[in-house]
Amino acid sequence: MIEDKNQQRTPLSTLGEFALIDHLTKNFEISHTSTVKGIGDDAAILDFGDKSIVVTTDLLVENVHFDLSYMPLKHLGYKAVVVNLSDVYAMNAEATQITVSIAVSNRFPLEAVEELYAGIETAAKIYGIDVVGGDTTSSTTGLLISVTAIGQVQKDEAVRRDTAKVGDLLVVTGDLGAAYMGLQVLEREKEVYKVNPNSQPDLEAYTYIIERQLKPEARKDIVKLLKDLDVKPTSMIDISDGLSSEILHLCKGSKVGCDLYEDKIPLDPTVITVCEEFNIDSTTVALNGGEDYELLFTVSQADFPKIKANPHLSIIGHLVEESAGVHLVTRANTKIELKAQGWKTFD
Ligand code: ADP
Ligand code: MG
Question: pLDDT above 90 covers what percent of the chain?
Fold first, then answer.
């Protein structure tokens, strides 16, 4: 046991994820000129000659990040890779390699771990990346997966989250909220199954949103699209924790404010229908749902003609002075301040 000299005991839940990271890492110093950006973005940026390397890592823990009662192991393997690649693409980089580390308990037979790796292999093939290492160890409490992704980008082409400017347009790819509503449907079916294991759920109407939860994709295509359109975003971040949280990160990092327009937020029709069924406000879901793995970026107004009317891109707002704050402009034309959501994991 480590002797406890520190009598004070602060519950981690009083800080939340981001304050905790800040607190733990605030004294770390950068000593290499190759470290262009350390902690604080979707990925670190390391400069080597005319290339920048980006590095990002994520840890997925059973019953915190995934529930194996409805998450097939193959999908879990696929998702573990994809969520990391999303952070690489959010830097405007090309993903090239990953390492995969697992801690696994005796509860899992070989065949189960094979399934997990089938998903990892499929993602590696589809996204064109090499699996170059990892670590394997035992666990007493279930399954943990950690993936580290490495990518490359031409020097000075990496796009950070702290470089947006007042007046820039705020753009999001795809549509939002589907992964969260997919999770709600899966959770509901799990409860039904507990009561009646013989019930045969008809989930056909929910295919899109369940797929978005169980088999998300990272927007590799957008990095290419932006190149083809000759648009370099002024800042970029991926949407893992919900639109609201990511806008706040981007604005805080860039020292700007934002007006986000409720009527511009892209929603799939299924999300709207299922939100009605669950009696949840679809804007709240888009703002706070998370796990969309879409890209959120800003462009200068001069690039407007290049991105307008593109079916993959929605212009959802614009950046204002920091002192003006970060607001949602509702359909009724009232302004509501966007606030950081509490972090659930340490509750
Ligand atoms: P994302 O949601 O894009 O994956 P995170 O919110 O997980 O990013 O992390 C924010 C930043 O903090 C990243 O730069 C990440 O590398 C860094 N970070 C997170 N946890 C730790 C830790 N325990 N020690 C050092 N850096 C960390
Ligand atoms: Mg990210």
Answer: 87
For residue 234, the enclosing domain spans 169-337
Residue pLDDT, tens place only, 99-132: 999 999 999 999 999 999 999 999 999 999 999 9
**Do the Cβ atoms of 271 and 210 come closer than 8 Å?**
no
CATH number at residue 319: 3.90.650.10
Distance (Å, whole) CA 154 – CA 156:
6
Per-residue pLDDT tens for 19-37?
A: 999 999 999 999 999 999 9
Give the ligand with the smallest distance to the CA of 43.
Answer: 1
Query: Which residues have a Cβ under 8 Å from the Cβ of 17 and sit 6 or more positions away?
Result: 343, 345, 346
Ligand 1 atom having least distance to the Cα of 238:
3
Answer for the pair 92, 103: CB distance below 8 angstroms, yes or no. no
Which residue's CA lies nearest to atom 1 of ligand 1?
42
The number of residues in the chain equals 347
- Do 225 and 105 share a domain, yes or no? no
- What's the number of domains the chain is made of? 2
pLDDT at 6: 63
Boundary (domain end) residue, out of 89, 121, 154? 154
Q: 101, 128, 154 — which closes off a domain?
A: 154
Atom of ligand 1 nearest to the CA of 28: 25
> Which ligand number lies closest to the CA of residue 293?
2
- The answer as to whether 26 is a domain residue is no
Residues with a CB atom less than 6 Å from ligand 1: 21, 24-25, 39-42, 58, 87, 240
Instruction: Tell me how far the alpha carbon of residue 293 lies from the centroid of ligand 2, in angstroms.
Output: 8
Mean pLDDT of the region 292-309: 97
Sheet of 44-48: strand order equals 35-37, 44-48, 51-61, 144-154, 94-104, 130-138
C-alpha 200 – ligand 2 centre gap (Å): 37
- Identify which ligand lies nearest to the alpha carbon of 44: 1
User: pTM to 2 decimals?
Assistant: 0.94
